Input
Amino acid sequence: MQLQAFLITFREVLEALLIVGIITTYLKRIDNAKLVKFVWLGAGLAIFASYLVALLFQVVFTGFSAMGSEMYLKISIIFISSILLTQMVFWMAEHSKNIKSSIEGKISHYISAGSIIGMVMHSFLVVLREGVETVFFFAAITGGNIGAALQGWGAISGLLVASAVSYLFFKGTMKISLKAFFRITGAFIVMIAAGLFVQGISILQDLKIIGSVMPHVYNITWLLPEHPIDYAHYLRDHGTAPLLSGDIGIFLKAFLGYSSMPSLEEVIGYLGYFAVIYMLLTTKKPVKKEKEASKEVLKPEARLG
Output
């Protein structure tokens, strides 16, 4: 869970900071540094609003628990989070090259119109989107216990690393290839999304909501049990211990959706997910690149162009 929390927090926080950084850098470049405070005002309000969303979500989840229906809410969150994570990767990959010019165009419009409120709302909505997505994803990977993710080392270190990278990024001491950055982080996010998707199928089968043609395609508990409890049960039943620890299994289950005894539907769902991702990537129409895009390496004022 903590690695998932780290990757999600790092990705979401860095994305928000990059966009806010683009805005503040642009304002300083056009001699409107006095407006920077309004950008940070919007960002601060969004952080507070995201915290309220987390509290509200926890209250709703507690209500479902009291009614004995929390598993249905959890299943919905898992599948929706899997879709949102996948969509997030594709959206950023598609818009990363022109996001700088798009943001600067909006800010220029607000300045021309004298709309301070518009500028505040723009930064507010940008950061709020990342905050709400983070809350939703944390709910998915923790089964609704958002506080557990927020208090763990994953979220805290993700926040710190993203802040440090963003700072070095705009100070000009760190150069990052935008394409490589989103490709690498996107690959990890897609794996998390695939794991959540398969976990959702597994829970549906555990609750007997859907059946299985073949409950266990294979059984490699002897090699790598998916939980320390499975490790203990195997040792009790066979008198010998599995080759690898159940702690490794639970890590891989959280990160990749690993199962030592997957059903046929889980296997099909997992492979099918990556097949769909592959088809979307290979059938996507090529987009014309700008003249400088192919050689672009991020610089303080033109990193996201």
About this structure: The radius of gyration is 22 Å. The mean pLDDT is 81. The first helix runs from residue 2 to 29. The chain has eleven helices and no strands.
